[in-house]
């Protein structure tokens, strides 16, 4: 493994619990290899910016200027690449990368790589995400043609997922998990064989569900953390990243 790891910038704050969850998973990737193996990180966790959902769904004020401000702060602090601890922020991925001057590791690409390593094989994937992430097509663009289609929950369950996100942001993770569990099971029953959790807040909730449901989940936050580890250390880190995902 390279002796000098490259500095990662984490653009977060959207919301703060999602940022903390990503940083925890990033630390777990290098666990057991000593402190020198951990990814050096600078984080920008500033939630005071225009709402992503309003920007995507209702043509509200864009958070792009605030995201660029955070990216530039991370760049000034020594970051050489960026990971965003928010799925919806990837709606602005291309413009952020073009204007920010740093590569941005893509969570949908990381999810695709994680899927390739799973033993279940190809088939219909279920996508559990918020309305704005579905509308932005963040996962559909990357996964729809490759994996036999993406199944979405019905409108009633989609409304429940919005409640799950709200509960996580209020700190009621247990209550959020109780709401999330049956939604995931219904999507599996309808024919999906694996579930992409395309929301950091939903990821936090589903992580508290029973093991027989969690075994079908693709943890996109953990997949992104593994990609960040591999990027930071170079190709020699791939084996460690693979181990951390399983």
Task: Sum up the structure in keywords.
246 residues; alpha/beta; Rossmann fold; 2 domains; 4-stranded parallel sheet; disordered C terminus
What's the overall average pLDDT, rounded?
Answer: 88
Spatial strand order of the main sheet: 2-1-3-4
- Helix fraction bin: 40-55%
Terminal Cα separation, in Å? Answer: 20 Å
Q: How many discrete domains? A: 2
Could you name the CATH topology of the largest domain? Answer: Rossmann fold
Low-confidence stretches: 236-246
Write the layout of secondary structure elements.
Blueprint: E1 8-12, H1 16-29, E2 41-45, H2 52-57, H3 64-76, E3 81-84, H4 93-100, E4 104-105, H5 107-116, E5 125-129, H6 131-136, H7 140-143, E6 150-151, H8 155-169, H9 173-189, E7 194-198, H10 200-206, H11 211-214, E8 217-218, H12 220-233, H13 238-245
Parallel strand pairs: 1-2, 1-3, 3-4, 5-6, 5-7, 7-8
Helix pairs in contact: 1-12, 3-4, 5-12, 8-9, 8-10, 9-10, 12-13
How would you characterize this protein structure?
With 246 residues, this protein is an alpha/beta fold. It has 2 domains: 8-106 and 222-245, Rossmann fold, CATH 3.40.50; 109-220, 3-Layer(aba) Sandwich (Rossmann fold), CATH 3.40.50. Helix content is 51%, strand content 12%. It contains 13 helices and 8 strands. It has helices at 16-29, 52-57, 64-76, 93-100, 107-116, 131-136, 140-143, 155-169, 173-189, 200-206, 211-214, 220-233, 238-245, and strands spanning 8-12, 41-45, 81-84, 104-105, 125-129, 150-151, 194-198, 217-218. The strands form 2 sheets. Strands 2-1-3-4 form a 4-stranded parallel beta sheet, with helices on both faces. Strands 6-5-7-8 form a 4-stranded parallel beta sheet. Strand 1 (8-12), helix 1 (16-29) and strand 2 form a beta-alpha-beta unit.
């Amino acid at each position: 493994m390279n002796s000098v790891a490259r500095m990662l910038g984490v653009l977060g704050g959207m919301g703060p619990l999602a940022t903390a969850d990503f940083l925890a998973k990033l630390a777990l990737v290098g666990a057991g290899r000593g402190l020198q193996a951990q990814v050096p990180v600078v984080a920008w966790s500033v939630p005071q910016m225009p709402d992503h959902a309003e920007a995507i769904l209702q043509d509200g004020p864009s958070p792009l200027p605030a995201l660029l401000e955070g990216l530039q702060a991370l760049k000034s602090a020594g970051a050489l690449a960026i990971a965003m601890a928010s799925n919806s922020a990837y709606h602005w991925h291309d413009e952020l990368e073009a204007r920010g001057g740093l590569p941005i590791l893509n969570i949908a690409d990381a999810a695709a790589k994680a899927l390739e390593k799973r033993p279940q094989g190809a088939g219909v994937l279920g996508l559990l995400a918020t309305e704005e992430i579905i509308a932005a097509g963040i996962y559909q663009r990357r996964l729809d043609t490759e994996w036999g289609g993406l199944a979405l929950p019905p409108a009633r369950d989609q409304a429940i997922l919005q409640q799950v996100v709200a509960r996580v942001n209020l700190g009621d993770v247990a209550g959020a998990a109780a709401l999330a569990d049956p939604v995931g099971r219904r999507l599996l029953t309808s024919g999906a064989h694996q579930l992409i959790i395309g929301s950091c807040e939903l990821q936090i909730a589903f992580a508290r569900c029973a093991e027989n449901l969690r075994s079908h989940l693709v943890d996109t936050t953990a997949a992104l953390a593994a990609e960040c580890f591999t990027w930071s250390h170079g190709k020699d880190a791939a084996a460690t990243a693979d181990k951390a995902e399983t």
